[in-house]
């Protein structure tokens, strides 16, 4: 179970990343944030953001056009 959830459904780039960055700042190192997004570019965006920030994508899936990511704060 994630420590926080970001509902970014209906938002376009860069808002899912912006909202996730805000949520990551609010949790402790090692905790996780679940992100739900509908932007098809979010998979690429989160991969790049994860590499840049060092926060790890521990889960990634898509179901019915909703992209789900679980990220662990470094």
Secondary structure: elements and pairs:
Blueprint: E1 4-8, H1 15-25, E2 32-37, H2 42-53, E3 56-63, E4 66-72
Parallel strand pairs: 1-2
Antiparallel strand pairs: 2-4, 3-4
Would you kindly provide a brief summary of this structure?
The chain has 74 residues and is α+β, with helices and mostly antiparallel strands. The protein has helices at 15-25, 42-53, and strands spanning 4-8, 32-37, 56-63, 66-72.
List keywords for this structure.
globular, 74 residues, 31% helix, Translation Initiation Factor IF3, alpha+beta
Strand order, biggest sheet? 1-2-4-3
Derived structural class: alpha+beta
Q: H/E element string?
A: EHEHEE
Radius of gyration: 11 Å
Distance between the termini: 17 Å
Strand content: 35-45%
State the CATH superfamily name. Answer: TusA-like domain
Largest sheet: 4 strands, mixed
Low-confidence segments, given as residue ranges, are none
Count structural domains: 1
* DSSP summary, beta strand count: 4
Name the CATH class.
Alpha Beta
Measured as a percent range, the helix fraction is 25-40%
Which assembly state applies to the chains in this document?
single chain
Average pLDDT works out at 97
CATH architecture: 2-Layer Sandwich
Q: How many helices?
A: 2
């Amino acid at each position: 179970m994630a420590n926080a959830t970001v509902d970014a459904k209906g938002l376009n780039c860069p808002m899912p990343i912006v909202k996730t960055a805000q949520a990551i700042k609010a949790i402790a190192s090692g905790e996780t944030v679940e992100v739900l997004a509908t932007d098809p570019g979010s998979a690429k965006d989160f991969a790049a953001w994860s590499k840049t920030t060092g926060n790890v994508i521990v889960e990634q899936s898509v179901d019915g056009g909703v992209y789900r990511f679980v990220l662990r704060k470094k």
